Amino acid sequence: MALDLDSYRDRAERFCEEIDREHYLHLSGRKRSFEIEAIYERHAGLFSSDAVEGLRETWLRSGDGEDGRAARHLLHFGFDGCLGQAVKAEATKLAELEASLEVEVESSSIPYRNIAVAQANEPDPERRGAIEAARDELLAEELNPLHLAALERVHELARELGWRSYREAYAELRGVDLEALAGQAREFLRATDAAYAEFADPELARAGVPPLGELRRSDLPRFFRAPGLDGLFPGEDLVGAFSETVAGLGIDLDAQENVHLDTESRPTKSSRAFCATPRVPEEVYLVISPVGGRDDYEALFHEGGHMEHYAHVDSRISFEGRRLGDNSVTESFAFLFEHLTEDPAWLAARLGVGEPEPVLRHARAVKLVMLRRYAAKIAYELELHGEAPRLAQMPARYVELLGGWTRVRWPGESWLADVDPGFYVACYLRAWALETAWRRSLHERFGERWFDSAHAGEWLRGLWRGGQRVDAEELLDETLGERLEFGVLAREFSRR
Ligand SMILES: [Zn+2]
Question: Ligand 1 center to residue 489 CA distance, Å?
Answer without folding.
Answer: 18
